[in-house]
Give the backbone structure.
Amino acid sequence: MKRILVGLAVIGLMVGAAQAQQTKTIAVSVPTADHGWTGGVVFHAMEEAKALEKRYPGLKVIVKTSPDPAAQANALEDLSTQGIDALVVLPHDPNVLTDPIRKVKNKGTFVTVVDRIADDRSIYDLYVGGDNPGLGAQAAEFFKKAMPNGGDIVVIRGLPIPIDKMRVDAFNEGVKGTKINVIDSQFGNWSRDDAFKVMQDFLTKHPKIDAAWVQDDDMAIGVFEAIAQAKRSDIKFVIAGAGAKDMVKRVMDGDPKMPVDVLYSPTMVAAAMDLTALGLEDKIPVRGDYILKASLITKDNAKDFYFKDSPF
Amino acid sequence: MTQAVHEAPVAATRRLNLGAVAPFLALALVCGLGAAANARFLSFDNLTNVLARSTFIATIAVGQTLVITAGGLDLSVGAMAAFIAGLEILFLNSGLIENTTLLIVSAMALSLAVGALCGLFNGVTTTLGKIEPFIVTLGTMGIFRSLLTWLAQGGSITIRSNDVRAAYRQVYFGDLFGAPYPVLVIFGVAIVGAFILYSTAYGRHVRAVGSNEDVARYSGINVARVRTITYVLQGLCVAIAVVVYVPRLSSASAATGLGWELVAITAVVVGGTRLKGGVGRVWGTIAGALILEVIGNIMLLSNVVSEYLIGAVQGAIIIIAMLAQRGLARNR
C-alpha cells in the first residue's frame, strides 16, 4: 500500500513537472511486428518519432506496440491516463477498437487513425490510409497493358478481411470484359509459406499459367520459389503489392519476372504522425481524410520507394 | 506394481495393432478422394511436393508424440522453429567459415544444439519447477517468438550470400536416387523415433510415466528425467525440421512456424496417440501429418470447393477420417 502511494506521488510529481514545462505528447499505438508489413510500420513509427522530437523541442512521442486487439485496447487506456495531447493509432481490428478509440477522443484528445477504419467515422479527427481498391485497380491496369491479347492468370489473396475484399473486387472489376481469365484464386494468408504451397498446387493443377497477381510482396517470395522449383517457364511475370524493399529492388534491377510493384507503404504511419504534429505544434488545420495513392512502382521511379534500412 | 504397468499394453494388444493400421487406412481413403478430385493428384511431382511439405509438421510431430506419450505437451514448437531458423540464418550470414559446405554443416549442427537446449529448458522448467507443461510451453512460445522478432527487428532474416543459398537449397529441393531429401528425413526421424519408443528401455519408461506417473515412480523410474529427455528430443526434432525449412525460402520472419504447434498436436492425435499419455504411435503420427497435408492439397486441386469454405471442408474431412479410424479400431 505504502509503495503504491509513493508510486502515485512520484507519478503525480512527474505529471506536474511535465505540465509545468508545457510539453506536448503524441502517443502512437501500432500492432506488434507480426509480419513484414507491420514490421515496416513499427520501424517507420520509431524513426519518425525520433525525427519529430528533434524538429519540435518539447514534443514527446511515445510509440507503443500491442500483440492483439485486446492488448491494444488496454494500451489505449493506459496511454490516455498518462495524459496525451494526440493519439495516432493503427488499429489491429477496427471493429473491436472503435469504442476504445472513441473514449480517448471524448477526453478531448486529437485522434488520428491510420490504415484501418470501421464504419463509424466520428471517432477521429484525421485519417491517413492507403488506397486499397487502388492497389487492385493499379495491378489490373498493368495486366491489361502487359497482356493485350489476354491470358490465363492465377490470384493469391491475403486473409478474408475487408481490406482483402476491396483489393480483389477492384482487381476483378479492372480485368472484367478483357480476355484476361482468372483461372484460380485462393487465400495465401499474407504468409510466404502458405503462398509457396498455394502456388505449388496451382502449378500442379494448371498446365499453363501466363501470370500471377499476388496481393503482397511477402507472399511473392514464396511464389517465386515455387515457380523456380517447378522449372516452369510459362509464367511470364508476377505482380505483387506493398513496396517491400526486396521486391522494390527487383523492380529497380529490371527483373523481367517482376516488372512493377504497387505501393501500399507502411510509411503511411510516418505521414500520419507528421500531419498530427503539424496540427498540434504549428496550429495548422489538418483535420480530414488523406488517402495515399497506390502508386505504380516502375524501374524508373523505384529508387523513390526504396528504404534500405527498413526491415520490410 | 511393475506388473500393472506392463499388463495394460499386453491386454490391449489386439486392439492396439488394429488401431495402428487405422490411420493408414484413413490416409488411403483421403488419397482416394484426392485421385477422384483431380487426376493430377497422383502425379509424381504432386506427391513429392506434398511429402516434402509435410516434413516440418511430421518431424515435429514425432517429437510431440514422445512428449505426449510421457504425459506432457509442448506448445512452443512453432515459435521454437522460428527462433532456431533465425539463429541459423544469422550464423550463415556471419561468414565465420569460408568453406560453404563446412559453413552449412556447422549451421545445421548449431541448430541441433540450440534445439536441444530450448527443449532442455522446457523440460527442466516443467519437471523441476513442477509447473504444468501447458503453462511453461505457452510461456516459452512467447519468449521464442519475441526473440526471433527482435533478432529480425520486426522484419525477416534472409540468407545473404547467393552461393550459400544455392548450395543449401539442395537440402529441400534436391533428391537421392529420385527420393527428395525431405522425404528421407521424415522416414529417418520416424524410424529413430519408433525405435526409441518401442525398442528401448527408455521408450518403455516413457510409456509407463505417461500411463501412470505414481506407479512409474514407485517402480524406480526417474520420472523427471524421462520427461525432460522427451522435451530435449522434441527440441532436436524441431531443429531437424528447421534444417529442412530454412533452405526452402532462405528466410525466417515473425510468421515462420505460426500455428505449427496445433497442426503437430492434431497430427499426433489423428495418428492414434492418446492425448492423456501412455500410448504413442510414431508411424500413426506420420500418417496423421500426411493426412492433414493431403487434405490441404486436395482442397486446392479440386474445383468443387469455394475458396471461402476450404476451412469447413478440411475440418469435416478430419473429423470423418477420425470417425472412420475409430470405427475400424473398434469393429475388427
Chain A has two domains: 2-130+266-292, 132-263. Residues 244 and 312 of chain A are 5 Å apart (CA to CA). The two ends of chain A are 46 Å apart (CA to CA). Confidence is low (pLDDT under 50) at residues 16-20 of chain A.
